[in-house]
Amino acid sequence: MKQFAFSIPKLILNLSRMYPHPWLAVVFLCLACAELIALAVHKNSFWNNPTLGWFEKLALIVLSILTWVSVSWILWWIAGLTLSPRITPGRRRLLLPLLVICCGSLLLFFSSSWVFYWRTGSFLDVESLQFGFSNLVMMGHYLLQAERVPLLVSSVACLLVACLIVSAFRRLYRSSAAESAAWSSTKIGKRCLILTIELAVVLIFVSSMGKNAAIRTGLWWQHAGPGCDYEVKTRLNPLLTFTSQAVLTLFSSEPVQGEIAAEDQGPERSTPYAVNKAQQNSPERLSVIYIAVEALRSDVVFLEHQGKEVMPNLNRLARSGLNFTNCYAQSTHSDYADPCLFSSLYPLRSQIHHYYSHTDPWPKTMLYDVLKQHDYATAIYSSQNEAWGHMDAFLESPRLDVMFDSRSYDGPTLIAEKDRSFAYYVQNSHVAGKLDDAITVEQAIQWISKQEEAKTPFALCMNLQTSHFPYELPHDEPGPFQPGEIDFPASFLSYPREKVPVVRNAYFNALHYIDEQIGELVAYLEEQQLRDKTLIVIAGDQGEAFYENGHPTHAGIPYESSVHTALVMDCPGLLPAKEVNYLTQAIDIVPTICGLLDVPVHPCFQGTDVLAENRPPPEERCIFIHCESNIGKCEAVVTSAGWKLLHDRRTNATELFQLNKDPGEKTNVSDRHPELTQKLSLLLQKWRRQQLLYYQNPSCYGFYYPPRTPKFSPEVKKLVSTE
């Protein structure tokens, strides 16, 4: 017993010699312990991962400690470099401020990553930074609007701490070099760094082997949950997450193997598009206004709150036309969900986040491309900055007459057609890089009036944005639903759960404001006697969550609150007052519009006309959802029978819900229905594989249009309908 007691201090002493200096051993060991304690407090950490064994958790603890050992040595070597006699005094004066700025930036990244983890359960990775830099201006506007004080305080604090760290390390190195050499050695530091890398590699690849084997055998749906690879890459340490994801991104671009089956292949691109000549020359052609509303949930239609209708003008359109009660977005984040609305294409194009480019080689045909061939005037009027996620590169087309977004507005001057200049932001008109929806509608009405003067039918696509978090109304208008002021710490990623009623009121106020603008547009059509000649379509781009499944806002896992959206179509004399319960997805809207306008559906479209007589029967119907954001990397498949299967690619978790009995998705029933879970998982995997094969192979996208949606086999059809 005495020998054991004696060995503990000796063990601690020997372990502390892994650090370059005794004081650094104390500081960095305390940092490692503090980080492990903080992880233990959070519900989403390796401590609370039931799929890990005790030996795996022990290995993660060792890796966490070794990471901080490696950091201490790297900083020690940098401090020694700045004191090297080979560096001239002039270069040293330039090097030190640069070192302080770099250190401060790393500290800001480290603290921001921890804030991000505390709100989402994962640290920032390379993809997160890439997304931020790709949308730097808009992200900056949002942060200055929503988190100005924390951002300013943390930036100043990180610079001050960086100054102290650089100064302390240099002073310690200068005064204690001999003591440090007696304490430890550079050889030990190098070995610790190599050991850290080796342990991380072993944990990632050994844990990944089981997952990869499950994928190859088609049993990936049985994977229990996140393993060591997920912990290292996502939520063990900010520096580990960033470096491991950066390295893996370089080596994980291996293309998907195989070919698309002939029956799943899209039509040949040589197939000519047949314009309806009779419709092209008809004086009775209908115009179309297609409005995408930010975060418009399905349950908002006909919703009354505090004795008032949230969207009375939308409700009038839903009562007189078609109200689609079972419509789904294609994704939970706008840069993927919005382009689907106007293109009828699934968003999945690559294994990592895809940023649209003017040089993308794949075919795309937008609603306005088709209608331009039928001599329609075409335009987009959007309140958002369409450069978000480079969506403008996807939306632009030679057949688009006008592209108006928040960059294009220049005070009272009308927009010039095809104006792509980055106009200055107008005071009281922009909210986090978005334009007041009243201005967008006003500009759209002026454009419609020009088409009416020319007696030209028009296709107008719109995007209204007031209902994006933090739901701020222009000119600080109070809104009808109170209390509705977000005067407490809140961000897109988190806010106090007890404040959900206030945040929901703010959301309803924003939708009510959008509804007023829709009312202005409808009133203008009625005044100009265009109402009976215009098909109005209003759709949510995605939903909005209020912690129903543990997360707020959107862009995360595709639970119902984030993907079950509103869809309303109305045209007096053309459409009856009717509720449509047929399972519908965002990519179906464009083909359905074409069907109503008697315009042939383009072979590039992946959606279907859900009002056509030859639409797929409900028992064969399924839709697919894809998310590739910083807080959600998931796919989902939904069937007409109410089955919904979710697969989280980060945690490898699979969930099955029966929405008819459990609309809130509270009970995962995959264990009760293993055969159905397997079949739906394989169907989802087939869809993902088809999309990736198509977009990675020039032999596919060069000769064919995108693949068709997978269909149920007779066996799956029977399972879906009977279980």
UniProtKB/TrEMBL annotation:
Modification 3-oxoalanine (Ser) occurs at: S334
Keywords recorded for this protein, A-Z: Membrane, Transmembrane, Transmembrane helix
Post-translational events: The conversion to 3-oxoalanine (also known as C-formylglycine, FGly), of a serine or cysteine residue in prokaryotes and of a cysteine residue in eukaryotes, is critical for catalytic activity.
Domain of life: Bacteria
CDD domains: sulfatase_like
Ranges for domain Sulfatase N-terminal: 288-599
Pfam family, one: Sulfatase
UniProt cross-references to InterPro entries, sorted A to Z: Alkaline_phosphatase_core_sf, GAG_Ulvan_Degrading_Sulfatases, Sulfatase_N
Keyword Transmembrane helix belongs to the record: yes
Keyword Protein biosynthesis recorded: no
Transmembrane intervals: 21-41, 61-83, 95-117, 149-172, 192-210
Gene3D superfamilies: 3.30.1120.10, Alkaline Phosphatase, subunit A
Name this protein carries in UniProt: Lipoteichoic acid synthase 2
Organism, scientific name: Gimesia panareensis
Classification of source organism: Bacteria, Pseudomonadati, Planctomycetota, Planctomycetia, Planctomycetales
